[in-house]
Structure formats: structure tokens, C-alpha cells
Specification:
By secondary structure, the protein is α+β, with helices and mostly antiparallel strands. Among the domains are: 116 residues, 2-Layer Sandwich (Beta-Lactamase), CATH 3.30.450.20; 117 residues, Histidine kinase-like ATPase, C-terminal domain (Heat Shock Protein 90, 2-Layer Sandwich). A hairpin with a 2-residue loop joins strand 8 and strand 9. Helix 5 packs antiparallel against helix 6, helix 7 packs parallel to helix 9 and helix 9 packs antiparallel against helix 10. The two termini are 47 Å apart.
Length: 363
């Protein structure tokens, strides 16, 4: 730790006194605390920032030296006093020191300093003027800055890794969550067309529409995995459209709730993420649940957004590891917005997917 040198008093100044210029020079180089100890009166005068270092104020910034020494740790007092006596009895003109100081709140400050010793013509020490530097504050600041730097470095590394992982996984997720859904719906309409000759043409038209949409989605994937579904229909419109088409070819009845005022607060990226989660879970319900009713709702509670999808199907044992990547996709997508996802289900008791997101993450 570097301690600034204290300039000696001007040669023109009489021994035992100091000029205003000398005091000003000390002030300029002192970036912590100035101290002036008059050995005749045993009174130490400190700079106005004494409280910043030691945690309490002094009347007129002054204190008797013997009283001040009582604030040192007991095991240091004797050593400090003996060292001082030795230096003052010698002919030394300066003094370097380091000690621990107990603050009123119980914390301990590590300080060090450098002082000039002023002597009379006979060589007797009559005054000590110097600066005290709070090492502990710098050490704490250095530790804090180092810790913050490591955290930032870790965050940057994690962000790079996450970005790379996202880049590798987005294509698979988009194909699974979007294109797979579109082609699945197209297959349902084709099946309906084969079994319902009377309405076959209408079902074929729907199948064609979904197939064309899937083709368009694949085309957009090659341009950066972009999707304008949300920008065209909004989250409510996009989900409502899927629900309408699903109920046309399935016995599943679906209720849906999302206030427009809540949707208006969501960012487009969050809407797309929520839409993909909806698609994923709806696919799970259609494939595995054998449910006749499903309920979907976006609500707020305190500082959280709740997104729930419930069905009255056959349920499953949540302790058993599920096959496929669908549930993993839902969990991963929830984490992207600092959210959580929980599947609540038992065999024969349906299933509830409960997602929670901090409201700040949806903007």
C-alpha cells in the first residue's frame, strides 16, 4: 500500500511551529485523515472526516491521546505505547505505523500512516503531524470489485455459452413446437376427410392451409427462426385460432382466458415463448390425456404472472421420467424468462401445468 510522503516543514519556519503553506501541502496530499498530536497537551486534532473512518464523531475533532489509545484492541495497546516511547526518545524525524482500531459498532479498521515528528532545539519531540490511511476500506473495496468482476466475467461466459446452446437448440425446438404442430393438425384434417365424406372437402381445405403454413414456417426458419404469428394475431388471437381449429376435429372442449390489458404489457418475445409453451402442452393433452375438457388461463397475483393449463384426462405419475422432449422444452422456455414450471398430476386425476413468471420479465 503506497503512503504519500509528508513534506518536511519549511526551513524558514521556526522549530516547533508550522506555516499555513505546510499545513495546506499536507491537506493536498492527504486523501484520508490528517492528525496533529500536541505532545505537551496530549491532545490529538483530527481532520473533519474522522467519523468516515472510525465510525463516530469527536467534539471539535479532538481527543486526548491516552483516551484514544483505549480504543485500540487491548492486546495492542502496550506494544503501541512502547513503540511510541522508543521513537519519541530517539532522534527520528518520522514515524510509520500500522494498527487495528475497534470502531463503536464492533467492526475493526486496519489503518496505517506516516507522520513527521517535530522537535525543539534540544531534540525533544513536541509534536507529531501526519496522515492515517484506512486500509480496510480499500481492501473491502478491492475484494468487492474483484468479486463483481468475477461475477460479470462468469455472466459473460454463461451468456456466450447460453447463446451458443440456444443457437443449436432453437431450430429443433421450433421444428418440434411449431412445424410439428402444424403438420399434426394437417394429418388430423386428412383423417377426418377420409372418415367424413360429406365434409371431406372442408377438411381437405384446412389440411392444405396447415400444410402451407408449415411450409412457410420452415422457410422462415432458414431466415433466422422468425415467426410473425404473434405480430399478426396477438397472443390471444394466435391461441384462440389454434383452439378453434382443434375443437373442430376433436371432442376436447377448451376454455381460454387472457385479458387484453395483460397481453398489452407483454413483450412480443415473451408472447411467442408463451405461445410455444401452449402449443407444447396442448400437443401433450391431445396425444396422451384422453381429456374431454381443458382450461387455459393467464392471470396475475402480486408481482407474478400465472399461466395455467389444466385438463381432466387420465393424468400420470410425475415421479416417472417422461419420454420425449416436450416437457423439457416447457421447463427450458420457462427458465428463459426467470419463470418456473410445475406439473401437478396423479393417475386418474388429470393434469395441471402451472407456470409462474416475475411480472418484470414479461415486459
Amino acid at each position: 500500500m503506497k503512503i504519500h510522503e509528508i513534506p518536511p516543514p519549511p526551513k524558514s519556519a521556526p522549530i516547533g511551529s508550522e506555516t499555513a503553506d505546510w499545513i495546506n501541502s499536507i491537506v493536498k496530499i492527504s486523501y484520508d485523515l490528517i492528525c496533529d498530536w500536541n505532545l505537551d497537551t496530549d491532545l490529538i486534532s483530527f481532520g473533519s472526516n474522522y467519523a468516515d473512518i472510525f465510525g463516530y464523531k469527536l467534539p471539535n475533532h479532538k481527543i486526548r491521546f491516552q483516551k484514544w489509545v483505549e480504543l485500540f484492541p487491548a492486546n495492542q495497546r502496550t506494544a503501541i505505547e512502547n513503540k511510541l516511547k522508543s521513537i519519541l526518545r530517539s532522534k527520528s524525524m518520522n514515524w510509520e505505523f500500522a494498527f487495528r482500531f475497534v470502531c463503536p459498532d464492533g467492526s475493526v479498521s486496519q489503518v496505517q500512516g506516516r507522520a513527521n515528528i517535530i522537535r525543539d532545539k534540544a531534540g525533544k519531540a513536541i509534536r507529531v503531524i501526519g496522515i492515517i490511511h484506512d486500509i480496510s476500506k480499500e481492501q473491502k473495496l478491492e475484494v468487492k470489485l474483484e468479486r463483481e468482476a468475477k461475477i460479470k466475467e462468469k455472466q459473460i461466459v454463461e451468456a456466450i455459452v447460453e447463446a451458443k446452446e440456444m443457437e443449436r437448440s432453437d431450430l429443433g425446438k421450433e421444428l418440434h413446437d411449431n412445424v410439428n404442430q402444424l403438420l399434426g393438425a394437417s394429418m388430423l384434417y386428412l383423417d377426418m376427410a377420409r372418415t367424413d365424406i360429406k365434409n371431406g372437402e372442408a377438411y381437405l381445405i384446412h389440411a392444405s392451409e396447415y400444410t402451407l403454413t408449415a411450409i412457410e414456417a420452415i422457410r422462415k426458419l432458414t431466415k433466422g427462426l422468425a415467426s410473425n404469428t404473434i405480430s399478426e394475431f396477438g397472443l390471444s388471437g394466435a391461441i384462440g385460432r389454434i383452439i378453434k381449429d382443434t375443437m373442430e376435429v376433436n371432442a376436447l372442449r377448451i376454455s381460454f382466458k387472457l385479458d387484453q390489458s395483460l397481453e398489452d404489457e407483454m413483450s412480443d418475445k415473451f408472447k411467442l415463448n408463451a405461445f410455444r409453451i401452449f402449443q407444447e402442452q396442448l400437443n401433450n393433452i391431445l396425444k396422451h390425456s384422453r381429456a374431454s375438457q381443458a382450461d387455459i388461463a393467464f392471470t396475475t397475483a402480486g408481482t407474478e404472472l400465472k399461466f395455467c393449463m389444466t385438463d381432466n384426462g387420465i393424468g400420470f405419475d410425475t415421479k416417472q421420467k417422461a419420454n420425449g422432449i416436450g416437457m423439457g422444452n416447457i421447463l427450458d422456455r420457462a427458465k428463459l424468462y426467470k419463470g418456473s414450471a410445475e406439473f401437478v398430476s396423479k393417475p386418474g386425476e388429470g393434469c395441471k401445468l402451472a407456470l409462474r413468471f416475475p411480472l418484470l420479465s414479461i415486459y
